[in-house]
């Protein structure tokens, strides 16, 4: 049986089982290496992804299946290997910031640099035009005054003056 008709199953951290073609999921060097090391079949019939949610994995599977005929980007630092986003990519990544963050973390784990690049572009376009205070809020970074308040001695942080 060739890779285009073979199927692979993933069990996500929220115990949802999702399925995709082996050909699509070997876009991920992590999955490809796992299959090579296990002789092509996961021991339990499915690959357990303890750090990836079902909602992020659904997006990853759709992206891999859509880009099955595109060459893999093996190196995140190769600017020549980064494809221009398609309309499919833009629509697929119209998600909330929490899911986009989950997706980017999953892409790092699965080494899906093409999707990671597309997600990073979404984040950068959302941040375009923001001032420093707005960027800190967007990224969840405490402001300098908040971190200074935490370091000040006083009753609010359990230290005495």
UniProtKB/TrEMBL annotation:
Pfam families: Skp1 (PF01466), Skp1_POZ (PF03931). Residues 139-161 are annotated as: Disordered. The keyword DNA repair does not apply. Residues 114-151 form the SKP1 component dimerisation domain. GO terms for molecular function: cullin family protein binding. GO terms for biological process: protein ubiquitination; SCF-dependent proteasomal ubiquitin-dependent protein catabolic process. The keyword Protein biosynthesis does not apply. Pathway: Protein modification; protein ubiquitination. InterPro entries: SKP1, SKP1-like, SKP1-like_dim_sf, SKP1/BTB/POZ_sf, Skp1_comp_dimer, Skp1_comp_POZ. It comes from the Eukaryota. SUPFAM superfamilies: POZ domain, Skp1 dimerisation domain-like. GO terms for cellular component: cytoplasm; nucleus. Residues 8-67 form the SKP1 component POZ domain. Keywords: Ubl conjugation pathway. Belongs to the SKP1 family. Probable essential component of SCF (SKP1-CUL1-F-box protein) E3 ubiquitin-protein ligase complexes, which mediate the ubiquitination and subsequent proteasomal degradation of target proteins. Regulates cell proliferation during embryonic and larval development. This is Skp1-related protein.
